[in-house]
Specification:
Blueprint (H helix, E strand, L loop, with lengths): L2 E6 L7 H16 L3 E6 L5 H13 L9 H32 L4 E4 L6 E3 L8 E4 L2 H8 L3 E5 L2 E4 L5 E3 L5 H12 L3 E6 L20 E3 H9 L7 H10 L3 E5 L7 E4 L21 E5 L2 E10 L4 H11 L7 E3 L8 E9 H13 L1 H4 L3 E5 L2 E7 L9 H11 L6 E5 L2 E7 L3 H11 L17
Parallel strand pairs: 1-2, 1-9, 2-6, 3-6, 4-7, 9-11, 10-12
Antiparallel strand pairs: 4-5, 7-8, 11-12, 13-18, 14-16, 14-17, 15-16, 18-20, 19-20
Helix pairs in contact: 1-3, 2-3, 5-7, 6-7, 11-12
The structure holds adenosine-5'-diphosphate, aspartic acid and magnesium ion.
């Protein structure tokens, strides 16, 4: 008997029909002789809708400004609010399973033993004690767990893990329960060489190393939550990303070079040079202009950013204009961190001694990823030629051993992704299927 953790994303349970379809799939998996633990996300775009509502009730009249205290206590309430989305889908899913003659119990994150730290909105898992889940599956029930949420071990308050965090709940449970596999069900047939919503000619990847999957997820491919890939790699959990709308084999993310894989006749012995192209619209660019070009200034700026909890991504320091003794420093950060970061920088303007700040949310990041880059010269040349042939201007560049990323204007991003995908011969002959979801 296998123990399978199945995670269903919001697009798979967006309406009653979706919930019924998923319930049938779960019951079938159990009937085939498996123990099944399910992790479910909030229905469709309901997390975004709850966020929109929260924004509406906290819009301040012009004459009032938000008090710092108010912001801190709202973070707790925001997690209370958002965690409700998953409670709705888990209970409905349990009812649909009952209707199909199987027994199921749903559990909130805290009932399932997901303990986290106390950072609301981006809590980290510190302990998983799934006693109730184990008891439920030993009794023959399907255990359904609300994704994306936990409970702070210190404050006992409800926390959430950050957007897309249900993937991480699933892997954490799979690791704690010693599951045989963690299946991530979504609205496409697996991990593709690019987002099929942007590149219809994207190709499904059958097998990807966790190293490459980490870079794809970190570069914005939202098919998997970054921390889920890190967690799976750390605990050796095999991940199978697949569609809940089809029975097609999906993509296997293998924890590390897997020696047990047998190469079929006719299959290439070497991995392809490039595994995919990722894009990200969730970052903004900050340029700090006229920073005194003396030791310690970059440290001061990034210390302020750390204090504002901003997750800095790419950084570029320009050479100082001749004779001015001043330089510009540009960096990117998540748009959601932008407000707090800007306020903190402005407050420190005279202490640091810079002249002004520019802030731009209309940027996009494009990344080319492939483990074969290490040993294949010419990848950068081909990459930049594809961008220049498409008339894309590059703002910032950063690289790792297996990735090249650039920042472009947001309205050029889609064309740039398609051009790079094409330039590396990744285009498939057929069109990728997107079964559902709104892409929000
Ligand atoms: P879920 O609701 O199942 O959590 P998400 O919307 O979080 O689904 O993730 C699935 C979406 O990820 C796909 O619909 C697709 O648009 C997007 N995506 C981005 N990059 C990729 C990629 N490389 N391969 C497949 N899908 C991708
Ligand atoms: N419902 C949450 C979100 O939309 C968590 C998830 O879907 O993974 O981010
Ligand atoms: Mg997701």
């Amino acid at each position: 008997m296998s123990l399978i953790v199945q995670k269903f994303g919001g697009s798979s349970v967006s309406d009653a029909e979706g919930i019924k379809r998923v319930a049938t799939r779960i019951v079938d998996t159990q009937a085939a002789g498996n123990q099944v633990v399910v992790v479910v996300s909030a229905m469709g775009d309901s997390t975004d809708e709850l966020l929109d509502l929260a924004e509406q009730v906290t819009l301040y009249p012009e004459e009032l400004s938000p008090e710092a205290d108010g912001l801190v206590s709202s973070a707790r309430e925001m997690d209370m609010l958002l965690s409700a989305g998953e409670r709705i889908s888990m209970a409905l899913l349990a009812m649909a399973i009952h209707r199909r003659g199987a027994s199921a119990q749903s559990f909130t994150g805290s009932q399932a033993g997901m303990f986290t730290d106390s950072i609301h909105g981006r809590a980290r898992i510190i302990d998983v004690s799934p006693h109730r889940i184990r008891t439920a599956i030993e009794k023959g029930d399907v255990a359904i767990v609300a994704g994306f949420q936990g409970m702070s071990r210190d404050s006992k308050d409800i926390t959430t893990l950050g957007r897309g965090g249900s993937d991480t709940t699933a892997v954490a449970l799979a690791a704690a329960l010693g599951a045989d596999v963690c299946e991530i069900y979504t609205d496409v047939d697996g991990v593709y060489t690019a987002d099929p919503r942007v590149v219809p000619a994207a190709r499904k990847i059958d097998l990807i190393s966790s190293e490459e999957m980490l870079e794809l997820a970190a570069s914005g491919a939202k098919i998997l939550h970054l921390r889920c890939v890190e967690y799976a790699r750390r605990f050796g959990v095999p991940l199978h990303v697949r569609s809940s709308f089809s029975h097609n084999e999906g993509t296997w993310v293998i924890p590390d070079p897997d020696t047990s894989i047998t190469i079929q006749e006719g299959e290439p012995l070497e991995q392809p040079i490039i595994s995919g192209v990722a894009h990200d619209r969730s970052e903004a660019k900050v340029t700090v202009i006229g920073v005194p070009d003396i030791p310690g200034k970059a440290a001061e700026i990034f210390n302020i950013m750390a204090g504002a909890h901003a997750n800095i991504d790419m950084i570029v320091q320009n050479i100082s204009t001749h004779g001015s003794g001043r330089t510009d420093i540009s960096f990117t950060l998540p748009i959601v961190d932008g407000k707090e970061a800007l306020a903190a920088l402005k407050a420190a303007q005279s202490a640091v001694g810079f002249e002004s700040i520019e802030y731009n949310e209309h940027i996009g990041k494009l990344s080319l990823i492939g483990a074969g880059m290490r040993s294949n010269p010419g990848v950068s040349a081909r990459f930049f030629k594809a961008l220049s042939d498409t008339g894309v201007n590059i703002d910032l560049i950063s690289t790792s051993e297996i990735r090249i990323s650039v920042v472009t204007a947001e309205d050029k991003l889609d064309a740039a992704v398609r051009a790079v995908h094409h330039a590396f011969d990744l285009d498939a002959g057929s069109k990728a299927t997107v079964y559902g979801g709104t892409g929000r």
